[in-house]
Amino acid sequence: MTAAAALVACGSVFVFVACAVTLYHFAQKEVGWLSFSTSLLGFVLSFIIIALVPYDVSEALGRDDRDSGQEVLVGSGWELIYWATFLLCWILCPLLIEYEAAGDFTVLGKLRASLRRNIAWCAGYIVCGFLLLIWLSIGGGTHGSLGAWCIAASNAWGLLVSTVLMGYGLVAVPRHFWRLANPGQQLQNLYCAAVTMDEARLSTQFELQDVISEARAEIRSRSSQIWDPALERAFSILQMTLEECELMHLELSNGAPTPQSRLGCCGAPSRSGSVEDSSRVRIEYLAQLHRALKQAGLEARRAACRWEEMLRRCLSLEDIEEHLYPTALELAGSWNCCCVRQLCHWHGVRS
Predict the structure, then answer these.
(1) What start and end residues bound the annotated signal peptide (predicted)?
(2) Residue percentage of the chain with pLDDT more than 90
């Protein structure tokens, strides 16, 4: 292994460790290992290009001294990054998003729910690809392998999305920096948006409160006369999620308790029919309730985070308007990033 290859390996390890530490710091503690690993892989594949591009450029400039082993290393590295990113973007991430949002109580049930919710997109992709192949066959332009067509399709989609986003950013980014020079105008805009955002925050809390009441009533109606292992597992998982959402609601509402709902107010299915059919129908209903509970909790937490971020921005802009920061260094020292704060408080920078 050459010195450049060893440097690439060390850089890759550094990227992996840095991404793992950063992602672990910002990730929620209840996130599963599968979601964390997939997110970590996406970050590593994105940032590892920084370590591979200089090595590829240096090897291309010294092509005369380049052996076959180095060519295989560079080619295999790019292929691994590309196809791993392709699988993450088009297959694993969409399935995993719906898998985590599913309310089913088994791995197989969550996987089936994820496939059902992604089948519409998959059918659309297949139909579009089939129509494209027919059009190319009629026009006589079918050249290349299946892998080449996948690369061309993903590149075309990436260029289209990049064009749209860069076209928006070409106007939005300069406008954003232009508005940063006027804190008073930013405050007025934030004051106007605060009313709508506060209503959205309270609406998500009320929705979470309603779903919590419905789940609590359903658990209270649990019958001890009929014992079904699958039903008991469903109730156990629903109970744990309910306790987490109740703690979240207490935190978001500053300790305001959720109202106690009476039995029978929720839309639970009837218990008529055989025991097996009744258990199956009730498990399906509990899965829907579990999904609604998880979704309501996520929406309430997201709205609360947006509200807190807006409050932080308003307070910072008000301090700027009142000239509480005599220098830009003092302003940078109040940022949330701990690294920036430590750097601004360092004696060498302040002197």
Answers:
(1) none
(2) 12
